[in-house]
């Protein structure tokens, strides 16, 4: 066991050095984390249970999992982030009395709240809020940010959601906000298709929050199957495939009358 601890300690220091470097190699960090999770599992520290006397080992294990959670966001691996958060919750609750407070706990908790919002898992979002101390909801910048975002969504204040990108408490928050904005854009696009036959490019860019980025707007329009007229500088929501289908009403009426007569004869 002591040999495993020594090897894990060396690998942990290597991971920490790489991840905190100005330009970390995410592939290397992912490989280090995979090996360290095996080591933590062998040491029964990946999901610890019962009484553990060595608080130093717990502290290192918690730090490794926190690095893993941040790495998952940078690597855009949402399932991995969810697993790391589930593992960290054990450290943040069951073993909090054995460890010093973690500076990463509230930033990661806020990130997890934002993840739930981006996945439209509102019930789980509120359940997670219930486990946070009430004063933190009002005072902690990492928790207030997703709480305010949820309020903006309930109000339909999408412009405030967009503006919140300029107020993120940590760069990692932008990852989930962009996912959230993607969901909002899809909803606005669906409503626009029903409400308008066409829109000027400038208006569509404002409506869909593609401000000052025409290329992203055009790419989004192609994905939705919209017709873009650069000459008119307009987006047409109807396409040639959207031709109205003529319903043969006269034939349907005649068939219905024939059925009615046949039924009368049967009766």
Automatic annotation (TrEMBL):
Residues that span the membrane, as ranges: none
Gene Ontology CC annotations of this record: cytosol; nucleus; proteasome regulatory particle, lid subcomplex
Pfam families assigned to the protein according to its UniProt record, in alphabetical order: CSN8_PSD8_EIF3K
UniProt keyword terms in alphabetical order: Proteasome
GO biological process, one term: proteasome-mediated ubiquitin-dependent protein catabolic process
PCI domain sequence ranges: 79-253
PANTHER family hit by this protein: 26S PROTEASOME NON-ATPASE REGULATORY SUBUNIT 8
Family: Belongs to the proteasome subunit S14 family.
Name the UniProt record assigns to this protein: 17085_t:CDS:1
Organism classification: Eukaryota, Fungi, Fungi incertae sedis, Mucoromycota, Glomeromycotina
